[in-house]
Structure to design on (113 residues):
């Protein structure tokens, strides 16, 4: 499953961070997930258990902050919200939209000991 390997990657990143910053336990994880990241939030939630088993994050609370997709229309120049990377501008209906945000998948912050 795509989301499981993504989650394992995030967990690995946090474990490396733990070595540098010397924390041993994570209680709460906040992830930012853009609507255009190509990730299913429910699948990500489901992957959190197996991906964190036996790590310093086991049993931590996962919070997912969903971010809308946004971009700038290449025809009319409006800043618009889009559902997919390939949506045409909802304002003028003609322009391609250059995506400016909504593709992120990252750890926003952690509560740790
Ligand atoms: Zn437009």
């Amino acid at each position: 499953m795509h989301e499981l390997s993504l989650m394992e990657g995030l967990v690995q990143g946090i474990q490396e961070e733990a070595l540098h910053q010397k924390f041993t336990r994570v209680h709460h994880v906040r992830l930012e997930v853009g609507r255009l990241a190509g990730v299913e939030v429910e699948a990500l939630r489901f992957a959190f258990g197996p991906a964190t088993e036996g790590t310093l994050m086991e049993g931590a609370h996962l919070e997912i902050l969903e971010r809308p997709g946004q971009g700038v229309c290449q025809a009319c120049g409006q800043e618009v919200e889009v559902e997919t990377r390939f949506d045409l501008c909802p304002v003028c209906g003609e322009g391609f939209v250059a995506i400016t945000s909504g593709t992120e998948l990252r750890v926003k912050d952690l509560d740790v000991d």
Q: What stands out?
A: The longest helix spans residues 2-21.
